[in-house]
Give the backbone structure.
Amino acid sequence: MSSPKILHARDDKRTVHAAGDVYRYLATGAETNATYFMMHALIPPGGGPPPHIQTREEEGFYVLDGRVTFWVDGQREEVEGGAFLHVPRGVPHNFKNESDSDATMLIWFAPAGIEKMFDEMAADPDGYREIAGRYGVEFVDEE
């Protein structure tokens, strides 16, 4: 059973850099009884991961600030702060900041566990494809 958790604003040890972005862990599987993983994402201009599929997790995005272009299952759409997107497991997707200003989002995954992938990728950015594969993430081409 997990217990209540308060994360204060300056807990920098929970921050990783991946895909050109800065991800700050808000709640990990260890803190949510493996139910979900949530992070805050700072996406600079040009940031965002390559197109991929999660085979194990559902993923949700809530854009807090800025503009982000999403590609989901062959459809592209630029959204702004206040937009929400749910991506079921098995659906190809990615996001990219195509603007000239930073964007921020909350991103969560259910169930938890994929946070370990982000930890490994931050430690070995060149090995991201092999690391991702161990966590059921497959990279794909945009349609």
The chain has one domain: 12-139.
